[in-house]
């Protein structure tokens, strides 16, 4: 570990100790962990470059944070500095929905124990919340998890921790929104437990500035007949690393995982997914798409593990990418590890440029080059965005994506 990394780690540990956030055993576990280097296979292409030598943990908010305008309709849960601020969002919650502050439930083992998950775990007793959806409860409106980032250039280390328990027969839709232009590190953790025959959808919108670092670690477990749909829309111009661990522990459970990354300038977006099929007759589908311009970089590393007991598993994984610039790059590594013999599993990855034939056709119909490019990349991106079934969330995500694609294609 470099001297800078050692100094950063020491400063963060001291801040956690002085704030009285962590338990001794959590700090002891952190002593054994280091910031990643390119020598580690899981971080070979995605080592964050920290803009500051020291980061401050945010102090408790003294006021109500300013929430961005134009957000979709829904039940608003607002976070500032990683902390849940109840009075800033929807006060009256629907029946069957409970929120407990300082109640983060940890217990789903990550595929890779790293320093980021360890740091978040150390402060989750102070920063974390637990969302409970009671048995057979159907939440009609989307739950908006709105993270308000610092507007100043302060270098803060922000660690929200959200756990969700969807009890048997329940259903809900979440939309988690990270946006902001500060030079902060957002080190977030989500733990999602989906009970028997429950349905849960999760949209994650990431739109942070060029100096920001976003590390998101989402872990989910599915019981019998449970369904999860998880979609990430990454628009940011900084560094993004998404670790997604899905544990399918019940029979006939299903997980859909989608991602759309729109990279420009020197942005970096890495999707690391791990799907563990631990029971028979389960299924999963992964589709991650990326469009990269400028000197941006995309990474897709997906692994599917099928246990011997998990017969009749049906698992599909695909990564598709378009490079709009000769300086953009993509690294793809789909993986299968199968111990069962009665399965249907497939994976693949493609990396290419815009097809010249449809581009020529659109130009021959009178469209300028930028507009023709925009139409083609919108069509490419739409396959992912159409998976959003809630109209307000889909319209919101589509408008953000179209605006970013317009910027990208007109700057070529």
Notes on the structure:
With 412 residues, the chain is α/β, with parallel strands linked by helices. The longest helix has 20 residues, at 391-410. The protein starts with a helix and ends with a helix. Helices cover 20% and strands 39% of the residues. The protein has one domain (3-355). The chain has helices at residues 3-19, 24-30, 115-127, 356-364, 369-385, 391-410; strands spanning 75-80, 83-84, 97-101, 129-133, 143-148, 157-158, 161-166, 171-180, 185-194, 199-208, 213-222, 227-234, 239-248, 254-263, 268-277, 283-292, 297-306, 314-323, 329-338, 344-352. Helix 2 runs antiparallel to helix 3, helix 4 crosses helix 5 (369-385) and helix 5 runs antiparallel to helix 6.
- List SSEs in N-to-C order: HHEEEHEEEEEEEEEEEEEEEEEHHH
E-strand count: 20
Number of domains: 1
Q: How do the strands of the widest beta sheet line up side by side? A: 2-1-5-8-10-12-14-16-18-20
Q: Kindly state the percentage of residues in helix.
A: 10-25%
Distance between the termini: 39 Å
The helix/strand class is alpha/beta
Largest sheet: 10 strands, mixed
Oligomeric form of this entry? single chain
| Beta-strand residue fraction | 35-45%
Count the helices. How many? 6
Low-confidence stretches: none
Q: Shape from CA axes? A: globular
Rg, alpha carbons: 21 Å
**Nearest-integer average pLDDT:** 93
